[in-house]
Amino acid sequence: MELKVKQEACIGCGACVANDPAHFEFDEQGLSHVISQENLDSENVKTAIESCPTSAIALEENEECHCEHCDCHKEEGE
Description:
- The protein is α+β, with helices and mostly antiparallel strands.
- It has a single domain (2-60), classed as Alpha-Beta Plaits (2-Layer Sandwich).
- The protein is 18% helix and 18% strand.
- It has helices spanning 15-19, 43-51; strands at 2-5, 24-26, 32-34, 57-60.
- A two-stranded antiparallel ribbon has the order 1-4. The protein has a two-stranded antiparallel sheet with strand order 2-3.
- β2 (24-26) and β3 form a beta hairpin.
- The longest helix is centred in the middle third of the chain and has 9 residues, at 43-51.
- The radius of gyration is 13 Å and the shape is globular.
- The protein starts with a strand and ends in an 18-residue tail after the last strand.
């Protein structure tokens, strides 16, 4: 899974940054962006997603994983 902010939908309200500063911060344009892909099952990530008034935040399947610390490359049963 990959945490994403759809920049075209973000209005910079700050709910995600307030609820989960470990995963989100503001960019130069005042819009939210993801700063960490670690611990995506945390309650704070869920709260940030639910608190977004424009539904700009999502956990999506990665088409190609670029992380080094997950098990997404392992086959089921390994």
